[in-house]
Each structure stands twice: as structure tokens, then as C-alpha cells.
Specification:
The complex is a heterodimer.
Chain A lengths: L3 E3 L2 E5 L4 E7 L6 E7 L5 E8 L4 E4 L2 E6 L4 E6 L8 E9 L2 E7 L3 E6 L1
Chain B lengths: L3 E4 L2 E4 L5 E7 L5 E7 L5 E9 L2 E4 L6 E3 L9 E3 L8 E8 L2 E4 L2 E2 L3 E5 L1
Parallel strand pairs in B: 2-12
Antiparallel strand pairs in B: 1-3, 3-8, 4-5, 4-9, 5-6, 7-8, 9-11, 9-12
Classes of the chains: A mainly beta, B mainly beta.
Chain lengths: 112, 113
């Protein structure tokens, strides 16, 4: 079945690294995504990883994929107050690569 | 670039009333979607469309209808509003050949009382 799970909250100090975790159940996912939602706004794509990769780095963002454990993580280095938002992971299905299954979202709170 | 535009931003409906949530995109995307986001939950797909004239049900289609007469527009219709439809609704669009990098509108917050 299709199910994507995330912890609901994460609180970090400004300047520290944040790690947001996600587990998914469908091992045949093709793409895995991280979206960011700021208050009162829609979702914005941050980064994505193809399922045959195990790591992707993009400036302060590092995505790690462990296919064996069906675990995806997003690491934000040098977290800033502007990173406070809800972060959603999502997976797309091989039989319909245009349907996204979203996790419940992790609310990241960055304090000074 | 306007991207994906949704109207209205907020709406309060009484039980049994009807309304249409508007969504338009100017990126010439084939695929368009409607999601609802309930508190503490992820996004649930209501309906989606792979092109003008083609629509299909998502995970939670009951109580909603859609149409796609043009590439740009994908309105969502609520015929008989119920309190369970109180939610934030997001419209999104994507280009198929780029996987599912979806571009989202700002959302419509709907309250049914």
C-alpha cells in the first residue's frame, strides 16, 4: 500500500543542523521529493531524488535515501529562522509518475 | 509569471450550499490536481487531470466534481457543502515529462458551518 510517515515536530537552534526523516512503504517509488510549506502559502518543491540514487546535495540541503529501509531524510545545514516551515516528503508511483503521495508533514521550528 | 492562481483565498459556506473553487495556470502544464489539507495531515488527492477534457478521481473524490475544458483552468465544484469539507484546498500543476515536480497555488481556506 501507499503510506508515507513523518514525525510531526522538530525544534532546533539557529545555526545547528536539522534532520527531517520520512519512511515510505512502496519500494517501487520512482522519485522522492521534499516540499516546503511556509505559513499561509502553498507547497514549494525544495529538492528531489531519483530512486536509483542514495544521496543528493544542493547547497545547504542534503537528501539521503536508504532504499533497503525505505527511509528518506533531509538535512539542512546551518539552519536559519527562515527555514521554519512545514516540510513534506512525497513519493511518486512507477505506474503513475504524476501522482504524488504526501507524508503528514514535519513542522520545523528554529529558535535563536 | 503568475504560476498557479487560486480564488478565492477564504470562504465560509453554510451546510448545503454550493460553490466553485477556481484554479488557473499559465505554464501550459498538461497535468493539474486538486488536494485538500486537513490539520496535522498530509495532502490528499481529490481529482486530477492529464489534459483538457480528461479528469480522474484521486483518493477522496466524494462530494466534489471537476471539469477541464481548457489547459489553463481546472475548477473544483462542491455541490452540497458539509462540515467534513472544511479544509484548505490546493490546486497544483505539473509537466509530465519532468516527473512530478508540481507547482502549487496559495490555497483556499474553506469553512463549512
Amino acid at each position: 500500500g501507499e503510506d508515507v510517515e513523518q514525525s510531526l515536530f522538530l525544534s532546533v537552534r539557529e545555526g545547528d543542523s536539522s534532520v527531517i526523516n520520512c519512511t515510505y512503504t512502496d519500494s517501487s517509488s520512482t522519485y522522492l521529493y521534499w516540499y516546503k510549506q511556509e505559513p499561509g502559502a502553498g507547497l514549494q518543491l525544495l529538492t528531489y531524488i531519483f530512486s536509483n540514487m542514495d544521496m543528493k546535495q544542493d547547497q545547504r540541503l542534503t537528501v539521503l535515501l536508504n532504499k533497503k529501509d525505505k527511509h528518506l531524510s533531509l538535512r539542512i545545514a546551518d539552519t536559519q529562522t527562515g527555514d521554519s516551515a512545514i516540510y513534506f516528503c512525497a513519493e511518486s508511483m512507477p505506474y503513475n509518475t504524476d501522482k504524488l503521495i504526501f507524508g503528514t508533514g514535519t513542522r520545523l521550528q528554529v529558535f535563536p | 509569471n503568475a504560476g498557479v492562481t487560486q480564488t478565492p483565498k477564504f470562504r465560509i459556506l453554510k451546510i448545503g450550499q454550493s460553490m466553485t473553487l477556481q484554479c488557473t495556470q499559465d505554464m501550459n502544464h498538461n497535468y493539474m490536481y486538486w488536494y485538500r489539507q486537513d490539520p496535522g495531515m498530509g495532502l490528499k488527492l481529490i481529482y486530477y487531470s492529464v489534459g483538457a477534457g480528461i479528469t480522474d478521481k484521486g483518493e477522496v473524490p466524494n462530494g466534489y466534481n471537476v471539469s477541464r475544458s481548457t489547459t489553463e483552468d481546472f475548477p473544483l465544484r462542491l455541490e452540497l457543502a458539509a462540515p467534513s469539507q472544511t479544509s484548505v484546498y490546493f490546486c497544483a500543476s505539473s509537466i509530465r515529462d519532468r516527473g512530478t515536480e508540481a507547482f502549487f497555488g496559495q490555497g483556499t481556506r474553506l469553512t463549512v458551518v
